[in-house]
Amino acid sequence: MTDNKADYRDVNRANWDDRAQAHAASADYNVAAFAADPAHLSHVVSFDVPLLGDISGLRGVHLQCHIGTDTVSLARLGARMTGVDFSPKSLEQARALATGAGNDVDFVESDVYGAADLLGHGGFDLVYTGIGALCWLPDIARWAQTVAALLKPGGRLFIREGHPVLSALEYDRSDGLLVLKDPYFETAEPQIYDDGGTYVETDVEFTHNVTHEWNHGIGEIVTAVLDAGMTLTGLVEHRSVPWEAMPGLMTKTPGDEWQLTDRPERLPHTYTLQAVRNAV
Ligand SMILES: C[S@@+](CC[C@H](N)C(=O)[O-])C[C@H]1O[C@@H](n2cnc3c(N)ncnc32)[C@H](O)[C@@H]1O
Q: Going by CA atoms, what residue is nearest to atom 9 of ligand 1?
């Protein structure tokens, strides 16, 4: 293990802790709507509903739940939810959100890779994750093993995530070309970024701005899921992404997502992957 890998959790956790309060206060996350309207769902989960189907009565875990907007939304669809994140400041916001919203959700502090040891093996009907989750993890095979360990036989993985092609693109071009700049495949070493901003509109100035991130190709993700003892049940590539992933080059869709303005059909923006844990 390199020095970079040894401290990636500390570096990334400081970045997320720094941003949690600003995210919860932002119009983009619209936390107030959960208390104001008991039927309100996050935009992300609303998009998922047609593929997610009926989840009422399921015992679900949301990996990398951040400030809990999607976790509470899944609880509102009838699942008994536990949210997991390694950022205590994010979990503070998540607990306050659930209390204000009147939804009973457990939030647990853990690194993703430690989630099954903490929450127990084989206890969940549903593992839900995504929208900026996998890029923080160095080893996709270990992630898939963690997901499989959390699931009961027959339990389901549901992930909608930024597409690895989108993650590999150079974002600040003005010539309309889509150019691969960063790795598409998983690499041993992280991409190290230093970015003082965040993906919501805010005036807050942050102090912890370095992140360590990894991309994972679609084939690597599918292979990891299969190798971990799950069967793929769905893989859909989408033409939109919930955040303005390429600032200045994207336009809002009627569904309130973001899409490349110029010939969006060139780019897989996000994907939804579903799998079921095999019987043992
Ligand atoms: C973009 S958020 C994804 C959550 C959700 N899509 C949202 O937008 O609210 C990424 C989350 O992953 C968490 N995270 C990053 N690396 C982690 C790790 N190794 N273990 C647990 N959580 C992690 C961060 O603390 C952050 O809350």
A: 66
- CB-ligand 1 contact for 146 (6 Å cutoff): no
pLDDT in tens, 189-205: 999 999 999 999 999 99
Cα of 21 vs centre of ligand 1, distance in Å, is 14
What is the pTM assigned to this prediction?
0.97
Q: Is there an atom of ligand 1 within 6 Å of 64 CB?
A: yes
Q: Tell which atom from ligand 1 comes closest to the C-alpha of 65.
A: 4
Q: What is the 3-state secondary structure (H, E, C) of the chain?
A: CCHHHHCHHHHHHHHHHHHHHHHHHCCCCCCHHHHHCCCCCCHHHHHHHHHHCCCCCCEEEEECCCCCHHHHHHHHCCCEEEEEECCHHHHHHHHHHHHHHCCCCEEEECCHHHHHHHHCCCCEEEEEEECCCHHHCCCHHHHHHHHHHHEEEEEEEEEEEECHHHHHECCCCCCCCCCECCCCCCCCCCEEEECCCCCCCCCCCCCCCEEEECCCCHHHHHHHHHHCCEEEEEEEEECCECCCCCCCCEEECCCCCEEECCCHHHCCCEEEEEEEECCC
What are the tens digits of pLDDT across the range 127-141?
999 999 999 999 999
- Residue 177 makes CB contacts below 8 A (sequence gap 6+) with none
Residue 87 Cβ < 6 Å to ligand 1: yes
